[in-house]
From TrEMBL:
<dbReference type="GO" id="GO:0005886">
    <property type="term" value="C:plasma membrane"/>
</dbReference>
<dbReference type="Pfam" id="PF04093">
    <property type="entry name" value="MreD"/>
</dbReference>
<keyword id="KW-0472">Membrane</keyword>
<feature type="transmembrane region" description="Helical">
    <location>
        <begin position="74"/>
        <end position="94"/>
    </location>
</feature>
<keyword id="KW-0812">Transmembrane</keyword>
<keyword id="KW-0133">Cell shape</keyword>
<protein>
    <submittedName>
        <fullName>Rod shape-determining protein MreD</fullName>
    </submittedName>
</protein>
<keyword id="KW-1003">Cell membrane</keyword>
<feature type="transmembrane region" description="Helical">
    <location>
        <begin position="141"/>
        <end position="162"/>
    </location>
</feature>
<dbReference type="GO" id="GO:0008360">
    <property type="term" value="P:regulation of cell shape"/>
</dbReference>
<feature type="transmembrane region" description="Helical">
    <location>
        <begin position="6"/>
        <end position="28"/>
    </location>
</feature>
<feature type="transmembrane region" description="Helical">
    <location>
        <begin position="106"/>
        <end position="129"/>
    </location>
</feature>
<keyword id="KW-1133">Transmembrane helix</keyword>
<comment type="similarity">
    <text>Belongs to the MreD family.</text>
</comment>
<feature type="transmembrane region" description="Helical">
    <location>
        <begin position="35"/>
        <end position="54"/>
    </location>
</feature>
<dbReference type="InterPro" id="IPR007227">
    <property type="entry name" value="Cell_shape_determining_MreD"/>
</dbReference>
Amino acid sequence: MSFSRLRVIFPIGLFVALFLDGSLSNVFAGHLFSYPYASVLHLTLLWLVFAVFLDDHDALPVGIWATFVGLVFDWYYTGVFGVYMVGLPLIVYLCRQIKPWLDLNFLTLLMIYIINLTILEAFTYIWYTMGHVISSSLADFAVYTLGPTIAVNLAIFVILYYPMRRLYLSVI
């Protein structure tokens, strides 16, 4: 495998996204977490989804990085081990499975990202419910967490799509 600048840029961007997930959530906590609503930023997930779909040669070990960054995310942000360490590689695996079947464009990637957000948030909800970390109903989760999370991340996707796409395609 030949050396690619993407192999260097990808992990740096992944950890910047991980840092920004927490930092921006902290800075905008008053807007993102206004009772009863909670909007969870998923820049790390966005970076991983872009990596899977824009790496034409599947040369990046995205699944391994997703596991590692999920462990760091669990350790540093949630304190509940396994949620993101399992959830993020699961999303990478699902994306890799459907990638050959899709024609990559803005709307396709947008829908994939929304589906991945829903899967990851549902996975987190189920994990936390089974672990008795939360006790909200499915309806409350859908209205007060999933809906706002999708809305905020949808706006972030629209803003970052072209710069991130350009970055990925320029370093390949």
